[in-house]
């Protein structure tokens, strides 16, 4: 083999770390390396077939994957005649992992081997899985576009570097030679290889062939060992659950089984087949900006593109699968897809199908749906803002923690909530906070707890934004318990007549507070919704809420100052004491204390916490002195 332009290059640091984990065999199921390499070979063939659509002189016939075993040399070779790679592509694809967040992901891997195995499977390492069973890997490749048999040879032992050089290669495509480690003899058994291919790669849409030897005439033959029929083109009744699961792993590079799936063929005005999956666990990069959507687009069984984001909205980005259309043109581009009417029709249908899948799981298997919600609930919460046309169906799928439960599990549906509503209760009550405990122990819930009125407890960062797009459900309006609402006074034990008399008696007290605070608050009122807390602050229905202000601030946006209503509990002993205080300085100290406490409960922070502590200490000392004077 003639070589030139030889270089020894270093792996990207993330690749080094990944290879280190691979070499220590973190996969409990080593044989998946063959599934990964066959999947890559299949993708290379599909990409060549698609590229040939726009290149008239490009041959794309007789595409296949081949596997050869050499017991003497202890090598296993997987080859394809797909699109191949140029030198720069080899360096990019085999020397780096070009995904943001990779470094932080890998640094999160610890010493727990079982956990790491699952995480790496979730990461989808593809080619690098070859080092699970190999102490040296060679790659010979030639791009379908390369002239004059110009190929590339790559080799590495999975340590810190790799060698790359130019070679001559007669055929396009990629050949991967695995030099197996000691103890991996099982992968030199052709029958074992056959069983692995049968288990993992039956669904591959091109032939997978294994090398056989005819001893009679001493010739080499290639025997096809898979069905070579795209799984989604087969009838549902002919496909086993295990085949659906393995196809999911093929397209997603996820090592876990899917949660559920939906296989659907539509004929008539439009003809298409969809096979959609819901994963069991979220990918590690779900919240990265460059997270890829999970749909592959085929047109008339010809692969067109990965990550076809045009067919599902962002809040369903966790859906994996394929869409195969008979109505789109073979040369369709991403730009044309955006405005194509067929795309829009398919998008509507696929959204409906995805939400129906989730609804079926939620209805039939609450435990399985809870698994989904734990992994993807925050993503689905983006739906009400993104997809107004399906807001009712999305809202049915939402789950919440509530005051009816003693833990933070989000398992209450709005249907459940409405069924438990009190007689004459007209609204769905909720509270948003920084954490479950902050919501659960909020002073705004005191009267609701006393009256056993259920309140939804929302503590995910996205919740406030989501609730700003939800107005009602099943005829019941949503009501934040932290908004100013005089109607909540009806929850109190006292009658409206007694409440009015109290408010009239304390009018001078309220006026005195207004004069003291001036424009620092929007309004001062008495409230009858509190039990053990002297005061709270609230916002008006259409004003920016505290949690929304925090959300804006977290994204670096300028936040307008919130003008709160200051509401005091006239039955609280400290408020009564303040109302009876004639000394203006002491009166001011009481009111400032109540306001600081209320702001701290609402926002979780204070502008001057040191002054707040000083005020408490001063008032405790004064109270202690007064108590001693009384006792003496």
Task: Describe the fold and architecture.
The chain is of the alpha+beta class and 632 residues long. Helices cover 38% and strands 20% of the residues. It is built from 22 helices and 22 strands. The chain has a nine-stranded mixed sheet, with helices on one face. Strands 10-11-14-12-13 form a five-stranded mixed sheet, sandwiched between helices. β5 and β6 (161-168) form a beta hairpin. α9 (341-364) crosses α10 (366-380), α9 packs parallel to α12 and α20 (573-579) runs antiparallel to α21. The protein is elongated. It starts with a strand and ends with a helix. 37% of the residues are buried.
Short characterization:
The chain has 632 residues and is α+β, with helices and mostly antiparallel strands. It has 22 helices and 22 strands. β5 and β6 form a beta hairpin.
